[in-house]
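cache lookup: miss for this entity combination. No prior model stored, computing from scratch. Input as submitted by user K.M.:
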Amino acid sequence: MSSGRASSSSRTAARKEKADPMPASGHYLVAVSRSLDPHALTGVQGIRDSAVRVVECEGLQAVVCDVDLDEFGEEPLRRNLENLSWVEEMARAHHAAVCAVDAVATTVPMRFATIYESEDRVAEQLRVLRDPLTEALDRVDGAAEWSVKAYAAPVAAEAEDRPRAETGAAYLARRREAVEARRRRESDDEQVLSDLHHELATRAVASRRLMPQDPRLSGRQEPMRMNAAYLVTHDAAQSFSDYATKALADRTELRVEVDGPWPPYSFASLEPS
Amino acid sequence: MTVTQSPVETRNSSPAYGGVGRPQPQGLADILERILDKGIVIAGDIRVNLLDIELLTVKIRLLVVSVDKAQEMGIDWWRNDPMLNSSAEQLAEENRELRARVQQLEDGGAEGKG
């Protein structure tokens, strides 16, 4: 496309001539929707106070916002991605915009930092990817993502009142037994959670187990034993949530947390799952 | 198409996205895991592979992805971080030290008697 190339070369030129005072802007793609009333997004912000707008092509709508290439160009972006507080701020902005779009139309969210040089390039993506994008929208239509996590309950502190005259061998045996018991417990937990996951999956359109989160990012001390996402129809959401919340209520060693609805991030894919 | 509520009001503080009975914003881990690792992937004009970023790899990839996967990738600095050591590893280590100590004592005791 000639306009895309022209835009590309002018941006490259602008980058080379550092004296250029006007920063070029890029088009940050937030999500792709259909049957979206653009007026419904009035006042919705994208990244850094830039309002979102809609680029239409082939019956699909790309929701984009402007970003400053001084911040989101390849080199600055690479630098900024090293800064966790920058990443957090931008990730939350991306997420808030996705939620706003998802609230008013069937939506597939984009991965963070998908940026184009012109609206023509955005429209071109909609045209080229029309079929897989349409299928992706079909898959999430009428449903939302629900997160179900299970944490191991905090392990009770080991009794300190051990026999005073305990021998080294007895001490070792006791510690070995503790390690063994822990291993058995984890194995039992895994079976219980695997069963729970399969049960929840039957109540969902699609499901996937995600990697358990590290305590340093989750902010939780208890180890995460299960991290799973389910695509659940709006009609079934309440009963799904109720079931997941209560399923393991009688197991004190595991705590289940249900969170949703989320935009269908984990089920937004150009390939059938 | 699902029209559920007014979009302007739902941004940021939407009850629909606040989680079940949780007033605070959704967790950073949940958001990063989805935004950096899920969602539709299309090549943009700005080419940055999120997982090629060095610090991002350490800070986020390790944290969002699991410890097991990080180990596969050869990232293992947290092993020496006491905050991240699992108690199982500590127990195993303690066991090894105690075994060595008991062995030492038993050897020493035998010599003393002899």
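stored under new cache key. Chain B touches chain A through 68 residues (CB under 8 Å).
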